[in-house]
Amino acid sequence: MLEPRRVIESYLRSVIPTAIMVALSWFVSVPLLGNAYYLAVFLPVLMTGCLLLAWFGYLKQDRFTAPRQRAVSTPPPTDENDTRSPYARWDGPVLPRSDPGPDTGNRPLTLLWIAANLAITATILYHAFGVGASFFGAR
């Protein structure tokens, strides 16, 4: 469950990177390439990149990419007091989980907010100003 405070913090962290991405997209498309049509191309490409990074970040948080531990092929010990066994005992305590790894914080959520902001910006530019609607008429 997401806490409202974490959602708001991650949104606030996404505003400046979104503005930087929009400014870079505009700078590459209008002054360098000479056509605002490319702005409507770069924004969705950056949005897709943010979604992919958010997905990979989520998989990292979920420990999906963690290396699997291989089973040890040693027979179980015969001594009842030997605790060096790699196998769990039926009458023993629950084994603790492995270290979850470094906390990545709200990075995937922040990247999702950046992608949403880029999508909203591209939609507003298209519907309000016609950016990306025509290649030849957007000079």
Quickly describe the structure.
This protein is mainly α. The chain has helices at about 5-30, 40-60, 105-130. The longest helix is centred in the first third of the chain and has 29 residues, at about 5-30.
Describe what you observe in this structure.
The chain has 139 residues and is mostly helical. The longest helix is centred in the N-terminal third of the chain and has 29 residues, at 4-32. The two termini are 47 Å apart. The chain is built from three helices and no strands. The chain has one domain (1-65, 105-139). Helix 1 crosses helix 3 (107-129) and helix 2 (39-61) packs antiparallel against helix 3.
Q: Count the helices. How many?
A: 3
Mean pLDDT: 82
Residues in helix, %: 40-55%
> How would a crystallographer describe the biggest sheet?
none
SSE run = HHH
Oligomer: single chain
Low-confidence stretches: none
Number of strands: 0
Distance between the termini: 47 Å
- What class do helices, strands and sheet pairing give? mainly alpha
Strand content: under 5%
Total of domains: 1
Shape: elongated
What Rg is obtained from the alpha carbons, in whole angstroms?
Answer: 25 Å
Lay out the secondary structure.
Blueprint: H1 4-32, H2 39-61, H3 107-129
Helix pairs in contact: 1-2, 1-3, 2-3
Features:
single chain, elongated, 3 helices, mainly alpha, 139 residues
